[in-house]
Write a structure and sequence with these properties.
The chain is of the alpha/beta class. It folds into four domains: 3-89, Alpha-Beta Plaits, CATH 3.30.70; 188-372, DHBP synthase; 391-482 and 741-777, Nucleotidyltransferase, domain 5 (2-Layer Sandwich), CATH 3.30.420.360; 535-734, Nucleotidyltransferase, domain 5, CATH 3.30.420. The chain has 22 helices and 31 strands. It has an eleven-stranded mixed sheet with strand order 7-6-14-8-9-13-10-12-11-15-16, with helices on both faces. A hairpin with a 5-residue loop joins strand 23 (502-512) and strand 24 (518-527). Helix 14 packs across helix 19 and helix 20 crosses helix 21 (715-727). The protein is globular. Mean pLDDT is 93; it is low at 771-777.
Length: 777
């Protein structure tokens, strides 16, 4: 039988997931000689033996992967035979050019939980139990390759028993970098609101008593701190809202298990699967009537944000018959998540009654991910823990390394090396100084982690965005500006591997247009390197500009002015939404003189205006509050819609909402139920967008539609629009793995920049070819 030796290069998620011991056990099972090691590309495997057995090894290698491993590429070549007998795991190799994936943080596995709950196990009730199938990765890694010396666990010297498991390829903890036990690993302790330790034989049990007693605790978790209190009583939830200065935005809840979640919300098969997955995100699910939690948890929303315990510490809390807990980010509203003990005591001390602390270092802040489930449609709304830094494939290699710095709200950043785009965790609103500092740190951390040296920075066109200003300060980098809604469209294209022209429907609150206006309801012809604006909602004035995003009566008055002209000042609706006569007259004066009244085509501001007209919400206390409340009250069973119009201008067109505004105003005067008006309004928006898509199909001769922008967090609109477009034979692509809101902007910017660079490269090649041909002729 002919003997051969094959070398394999495995790329993908192959580090920190038990891949090498898996290879070791497979090779030993097949009696093959050779070795396996990590390097900057992934994993290198050499196996030697009968060629038929080597072929069997290759087939089984991909078919029997560990739970967290993913091989995206397996290259093989036959090499010279080696006389070394046996199979070994070699130390990692690293040449200073990192290309291997960093593993995401994942929830504790059932095997570890079984040990943690076994009184005879040496890790009984140990809050940091983990193995190669679970536990922290991204939140503790400082550099790659992913070895213990390159993580925050370097500070803990393994005891002989842990070392024995770590070195044994036949155990579940072989090279589990965070491996630890009570004898050698991190410790947990209780502290008061000033950070002073509280004597407790079992700090977790003491924390349980305090939570059950109605206290608010700051709990150090995987990627930062949570603020926690019991959710089934009004008093602790109300007090947490007061301290955190978060009066309206819904809180996330953590529950013991799926059965407990079912008592609070309606969960279908898809929601249960996502909630129980290794990522353990916050899942937005419809509330169940009479759910046994405080009405203050999620006011104005028809959904709860639910998650299951994902760390051993969380599981220990809920092993004590704990009711649902509010488990919200450890910060004051809009500030970054606290991650270090001293920082947490300083920032969170006034917000809590005590701390549950530990001494395992957190290298980077990683907030909880948020997903929305609507039937079989699962959409990531905030991409963070469990998803970051898993790369997104661009489909072709970028000619240069690219940094994309995202938008100003819901900021994320993105790095591109070759075919891979690494989208960062959620950062937040850059107008807060502490968040901006976190933005710059994230760029430094991410570029250092993947050892990138970008030569290009992609940014939004808005000159006042802090992310744009950061890009302009990078003198050594070439800058590529990308229009906001174009970036939205391309982010969806990349997610679905679309490298061909499509129609894009992009709707959100605001984005700087190429004409200097505030865009927000756009129908584009888009390809990765260029776009054409085919249609949009008619512009209307926004008195006070950005102030309208919070004070909703400004959008109402702007739309009334657009619909009825100056005589709208006498309308009863104007006085109803803005009862202060001096303020109202000031806004009319701005509209008459067109002073500080930028033009907008924003669908988000239209949602705000209708919510205000119906008396649902008067002020946006957090981004998206009014649209969310408007969707929540929309009545079922209504298919009719309001009149609307379309104005054609040659190849382009405008969606005219004035007939709808007039009809809604008439219905408010007749005291029509807000629930019915909301349903008809939503239906009208869908009909307008559908009509625009059909015109765009005629103009562009394209039949595929990508749908993006923050307005499509609205399940009603997204579902109904997709159905209506599919009914007329159009193929619809919506977001799944990347947020439709500004959290996906950086990916779109990066992909546009990559396409522009590639086009330039190909053009230069063509010029050189033509020039060379000319000389030859």
């Amino acid at each position: 039988m002919e003997v051969g030796r094959a070398r394999f290069l495995a790329r993908g998620q192959v580090q920190g997931v038990g891949f090498r011991p898996y290879v070791y056990r497979l090779a030993r099972d097949l009696k093959l000689d050779g070795h396996v090691s990590n390097d900057q590309d992934g994993a290198i495997i050499e196996v030697q033996g009968p060629q038929a057995t080597v072929e069997l090894f290759a087939r089984r290698l991909l078919a029997e992967l560990p739970p967290l491993a993913e091989v995206t590429e397996l290259a093989r070549q036959w090499v010279a035979l080696d006389g070394t007998a046996g199979f070994r795991i070699r130390p990692s190799r690293h040449d200073g050019h990192a290309r291997a994936r960093v593993t995401v943080d994942v929830s504790v596995c059932q095997s570890c939980l079984a040990e943690m709950r076994d009184p005879s196990d040496r890790r009984y009730r140990y809050p940091f139990i983990n193995c190669t199938d679970c536990g922290p990765r991204y939140s503790i890694v400082q550099r790659i390759p992913y070895d213990r010396s390159n993580t925050t666990m370097e500070a803990f010297q393994m005891c002989p028993q842990c070392r024995s498991e770590y070195d044994d390829p036949m155990t579940r903890r072989f090279h589990a970098q965070p491996i630890a036990c009570p004898a050698c690993g991190p410790k947990v302790w209780l502290a008061d609101d000033r950070g002073r330790p509280i004597e407790a034989s079992d700090p977790v049990a003491q924390a349980v008593e305090r939570l059950l007693g109605g206290q608010i605790l700051a709990i150090k978790g995987l990627g930062g701190f949570h603020l926690a209190c019991r959710a089934d009583q009004d008093a602790p939830v109300a007090e947490l809202r007061r301290r955190k200065r978060r009066d309206h935005k819904p809180f996330a809840l953590m529950v013991r298990d799926l059965a407990a979640a079912e008592q609070l919300a309606h969960l279908d098969e898809h929601a249960r699967k996502v909630m129980a997955g290794v990522e353990r995100p916050i899942v937005l699910t419809p509330k169940r009537d009479g759910a046994p939690v405080s009405r203050r948890v999620a006011p104005g929303s028809d959904c709860f944000g639910l998650m299951l315990p994902y760390t051993p510490l969380h599981c220990l809390l809920f092993d004590a018959d704990m009711p649902p807990l509010v488990m919200t980010s450890g910060n004051i509203t809009d500030e970054p998540l606290a991650k270090d003990n001293h920082e947490a005591v300083t920032r969170l001390g006034p917000l809590c009654d005590g701390f549950l602390l530990h001494d395992r270092g957190i290298e980077r802040r990683v907030d909880d991910s948020v997903v929305q489930v609507d039937g079989d449609r699962v959409t990531v709304m905030r991409r963070s823990r469990g998803h970051v830094p898993a790369p997104i494939e661009l489909g072709s290699a970028a000619p240069e390394e690219i940094l994309a710095v995202g938008a100003e709200l819901r900021n994320t950043v993105c790095l591109v090396r070759g075919e891979q785009a690494v989208l960062s965790e959620h950062i937040g609103d850059l107008t807060d100084a502490t968040v901006y500092r976190q933005f710059t740190r994230t760029i430094d951390h991410l570029t250092g982690l993947v050892e990138a040296a970008p030569s290009v920075v992609a940014h939004d066109l808005h000159p006042l965005y802090l992310s744009t200003q950061y890009a302009r300060q990078q003198a050594r980098l070439r800058r590529i500006g990308v229009q906001h809604h174009f970036a939205h469209a391309v982010s969806c294209m990349v997610e679905h591997d679309l490298d061909r022209p499509v129609i894009a429907i992009v709707c959100d609150g605001t984005g700087y247009g190429t004409d200097g206006a505030n865009w927000g309801c756009e129908i584009l012809r888009a390809e990765r390197g260029a776009f054409e604006r085919v249609g949009h909602m008619q512009y209307f004035p926004l008195p006070g500009g950005d102030a309208a995003a919070r004070e909703l009566h400004r959008s109402v008055l702007g739309l009334l002015w657009h619909t009825f002209g100056p005589e709208c000042a006498e309308l009863a609706l104007a006085a109803a939404v803005c009862p202060d006569p001096l303020q109202r007259e000031g806004l009319w004066a701005m509209l008459r003189s067109q002073t500080n009244c930028p033009l907008s085509s924003s669908l988000g501001r239209l949602f705000d205006a209708v919510a205000c007209m119906l008396g649902v919400v008067g002020t946006n206390e957090f981004e998206g509050q009014a649209p969310m409340a408007l969707e929540t009250i929309a009545a079922d069973g209504y298919d009719d819609y309001y009149p609307h119009a379309i104005e054609h201008h040659g190849r382009s067109f405008e969606l005219d909402v004035r007939p709808m505004i007039s009809a809604i105003m008439a219905e408010t005067q007749m005291h029509r139920e807000p629930e019915v008006v909301s349903a008809r309004f939503h239906n009208t928006v869908v009909e307008l967008l559908k009509a625009g898509a059909l015109i765009a199909r005629d103009v562009t001769e394209l039949n595929e539609v990508v749908v993006s922008g923050g307005c499509f967090a609205n399940r009603y609109v997204t579902r109904r629009l997709s159905e209506r477009l599919e009914q007329v034979g159009m193929r619809v692509w919506v977001h799944r793995r990347v947020p439709c809101n500004d959290g996906g902007i950086a990916l779109g910017q990066a992909a546009v920049a990559a396409a522009v660079l590639q086009d330039e490269k190909e053009t230069a090649r063509e010029v050189r070819h033509v020039s060379g041909s000319t000389r030859t002729d």
